[in-house]
Amino acid sequence: MQRDSQIHKEVMTKPKFDVRLQSSIGEMCGSGIIAKIRPRSSVASFTADTEVAKRVSGILKSNSTVNQENIRIKVEEGHVTLTGTVEKEFQRQSAKIVIQHLGGVRSVVNLISLNSGINSFDIV
Questions:
Q1: Do 31 and 54 lie in a common domain?
Q2: Most buried residue among 6, 20, 45, 70 by CB atoms closer than 10 A?
Q3: pLDDT tens digits, residue range 17-42?
Q4: Mind giving me the DSSP string for the chain?
Q5: Which whole-number Å values give the CA distances from 106 to 49, 76, 89, in the listed order?
Q6: CB-based burial of residue 70 (10 Å sphere; 0-12 exposed, 13-18 middle, 19+ buried)?
Q7: Same domain, 116 and 90
Q8: Residue 56 in contact with residue 62, Cβ under 8 Å?
């Protein structure tokens, strides 16, 4: 069994490399690998983005507080982005709340803006 001082000496005398390799597995730097761990769903529980988009659209259509016609839905790897306009803040918040716990939804970015109701012709 090697002592700490022996191990330290061996490590310090090894040639040093300035190699950096970045991949989805991890980053290799010199004598070690720093793992980048990303949780992955199992194939059985993976829900396709198109299916998630259908679910989100259906929930928004059935929600009477949200005017779904003015909301656009984008889904990438379970991450949902909502854009468009609504009349009131509670409608904007409701759109996020009703979909954030749907199966297949990993996160929701709510970029829905409020329609101020002011027409450019109204400004004098």
A1: no
A2: 70
A3: 444 444 344 444 444 545 544 555 54
A4: ---HHHHHHHHHHSPP---EEE-SSEEEETTEEEE-------TTT---HHHHHHHHHHHHHH-TTS-GGGEEEEEETTEEEEEEEESSHHHHHHHHHHHTTSTT--EEEEEEEE-----GGG--
A5: 11, 10, 23
A6: middle
A7: yes
A8: no
Same domain for 57 and 102, yes or no, is yes
Domain annotation covers residue 110? yes
Paired tokens of 65: 């507080």
CA distance 10 to 30: 15
The gap from C-alpha 112 to its chain's centroid, in whole angstroms, comes to 17
Q: What is the pLDDT of residues 61-70, one digit of tens each?
A: 998 888 788 8
Look at residue 42 and tell me if it is in a domain.
no
Please check whether residue 76 is in contact with residue 115, taking contact to mean a CB–CB distance below 8 angstroms. no
